[in-house]
Amino acid sequence: MDLIAELSAWRSLCIIRAPEIADPVGLGQTLVEAGLPIVEFSFTTPNAPRLMEQAAKVDGLILGAGTVMTEQNARDAINAGAKFLLTPGLRPKVVAVATEQGVPVVLGAMTPTEVADAVDMGATAVKVFPAARLGPDYFKDLHGPYPGTPLVATGGLTAANAAEYLAAGALAVTAGSGVVSPELAAESRLAEIRQRASEFVDAVALAKRH
Q: Are 89 and 107 contacting, i.e. CB atoms less than 8 angstroms apart?
């Protein structure tokens, strides 16, 4: 799976971080139908690999694992069907497993030094967090020294501000609790999730046209 090609095409991905996910299959289907098919299930959710196994059955879902902290997390995620891994910071042991298994890995970073370290470790892309606190101009600044580095804006992004980060040079933006809140995931309120996902997708589409 060419993660950069998929991110370039969709310009967005959805982070699922909730104490409970009642219906991972229904949730995955809803996001695919709403036009948000790149989806990360976080290891902060109990029984994350089991949920990934179920979601991996959804046609059209590009499944990733998030908050991958250890080698074991990485192996469990890949065995459960995850096609890419994301970390909250620089995790060289996770990179080693991803490289061994031929799976793309997105490393978390905030500072310019951390971005450089992520690239040196072999990151497929770099997740810049917390994006909303850093602001869109930070992405313009990073593209000075790192013009070819794929940056994913994460943290505090919504349908109201996502386009600003894409315009500033982010390859993709992440939808988080603004689309799939813990309550919506736990109660499987799929109609509300679909509506929120569609609004986020529309914002991204508007940015892509400009």
A: yes
**19 phi, psi to nearest 5 deg:** -65, -25
Q: Quick check: helix, strand or coil at residue 121?
A: helix
Q: How far apart are CA 25 and CA 16, in angstroms?
A: 13
Residues written for the chain:
210
For residue 164, count other CB atoms closer than 10 A to its CB: 19
**Burial code of 19-48, b = ≥16 C-beta within 10 A, e = fewer?**
eebebbebbbbbbbebebbbbbbbbebeeb
| Tens digits of residue pLDDT in 57-93 | 999 999 999 999 999 999 999 999 999 999 999 999 9
Domain interval for residue 143: 3-209
**The domain that contains 84 carries what CATH number?**
3.20.20.70
Asked if residue 88 has a cis previous peptide bond (ω within 30° of 0), the answer is no
pTM of the predicted model as reported, rounded to 2 decimal places: 0.95
Closest CA to 16 of 94, 82, 107, 111: 82
Q: Which amino acid is at 11?
A: R
199: tokens are: 């609004």
Domain count, the chain: 1
In the chain, what is the greatest distance between 2 CA atoms, to the nearest angstrom? Answer: 45
Contact yes or no for 23/188 (Cβ under 8 A): yes
